[in-house]
What we know:
Elements lengths: L1 H5 L4 H23 L4 H14 L10 H7 L3 E5 L18 E8 L2 E8 L4 H23 L2
Parallel strand pairs: 1-2
Antiparallel strand pairs: 2-3
Amino acid sequence: xxKAFAANKPGAERLALMKAAxxxxxxxxxxxxxxxxxxxxxxxxxxxxxxxxxxxxxxxxKAYGTLSNIVxxxxxxxxxALDGGGFGPxxxxxFGIGYGIKDYGAQFTIMSYRDDLDDxxxxxxxxxxxxxxxxxxxxxx
Length: 141
């Protein structure tokens, strides 16, 4: 879906891929809520192992290091009781993004230790405009 938008593919293709990405995100979110997310399990097992003074080799493997380098860490902050909020970055290269969906649109709070935060925010805003434009194109039809 991201590649289709970046390559300026036709609107129908972008819309179909965006809908598929949304469905997949919903599935992954539900699985994580049901305890089926792999990262949380491995993190907990690592902390238990460290407390016992051992560290299994999986945690020093290059592949695990790559998977553990979280660049986007997000949290939904959608509740009528919340008017904003934040979600901090979990590493030096990470963007922490708290977001909420409101009746009038979406609200984001973005934090990072990086020095390109303004660029990231503009890119996010541009991507949201592109998605909105694609949706509007087909909602009017």
